[in-house]
Amino acid sequence: MTAQSLIAIDIPALSVEQTGRDAFHSLSDYHVKHLPVVENGKLVGLLSEEDIFNHKLYDPIASYDLSLVRRFAVRENEHAFEVMRVMGDNRLTVVPVVDKEDNYLGLISQNDLLRYFANMASFTEQGAVLVLEMHRRDYSLAVIARVIEEEDVKVLSAFVTSAPESEEITVTLKLNSNELARVIASLERYEYTVKETYSEFQHSNDLHERYESLMNYLNM
């Protein structure tokens, strides 16, 4: 999925002729904290609430020092993962999309990006989630997948996260099965650390135990 296919058609950009008041109303109307500023079809920058509050509300955006406005953007052919990286690294609520000549094409909102990932097959398919902890040098998705597939279970998706300046990483795996006992035993046999597990079976058991506890309490 490329950035161009994720563009939100219902959120307009700001023009340099508009005022801070106009910009503030647009941010409020569309429930975002950033909006692109466009002049002659080109992206000037990304205006934030803070930029507006640093000026008088009736000042035109053209009077702002636009050289200081942040200019984050992604190319039209970049993948959704790159959009997520830019959005996450810079704590943005929207990301502008431009072509190779820097012509403004539109924006991708945080909500639309989240909706895309939520609708991915790996999220909608049934199955368990397994979280591993390991040193960065020990990570190999091919090896981990082979260990899991030896138990007739498939890896649907994998996400790797790490803390800044740390060599330890967390690997989150979505599997196509809720039966984890053999998979966990196999991973631990290869000295992988299983940090957390989440499954529909586990959730069902938790609900059942809570129900039984409630019934026992009511029958006292």
Task: Itemize the secondary structure elements and their pairings.
Blueprint lengths: L13 E2 L4 H11 L3 E6 L2 E7 H5 L20 E2 L4 H11 L3 E5 L5 E6 H9 L2 H4 L4 E7 L5 H9 L5 E8 L5 E8 L5 H9 L3 E6 L1 H19 L2
Parallel strand pairs: 1-2, 4-5
Antiparallel strand pairs: 2-3, 5-6, 7-9, 7-10, 8-9
> What is the CATH architecture descriptor of the largest domain?
Roll
Strand content bin: 25-35%
Uncertain residue ranges = 202-208
- How many beta-strand segments? 10
Quick synopsis:
Helices cover 35% and strands 26% of the residues. The chain is of the alpha+beta class and 220 residues long. It has 2 domains: 3-117, CBS-domain, CATH 3.10.580; 121-213, Alpha-Beta Plaits (2-Layer Sandwich).
Structure description:
- There is one protein chain.
- The chain has 220 residues and is of the alpha+beta class.
- It has two domains: 3-117, CBS-domain (Roll), CATH 3.10.580.10; 121-213, Alpha-Beta Plaits (2-Layer Sandwich).
- The protein is built from eight helices and ten strands.
- The chain has helices at 20-30, 49-53, 80-90, 110-118, 121-124, 141-149, 181-189, 200-218, and strands at 14-15, 34-39, 42-48, 74-75, 94-98, 104-109, 129-135, 155-162, 168-175, 193-198.
- The strands form three sheets. A four-stranded antiparallel β-sheet has the order 8-9-7-10. A three-stranded mixed β-sheet has the order 1-2-3.
- A hairpin with a 5-residue loop joins strand 8 (155-162) and strand 9.
- The longest helix has 19 residues, at 200-218.
- Mean pLDDT is 86; it is low at 202-208.
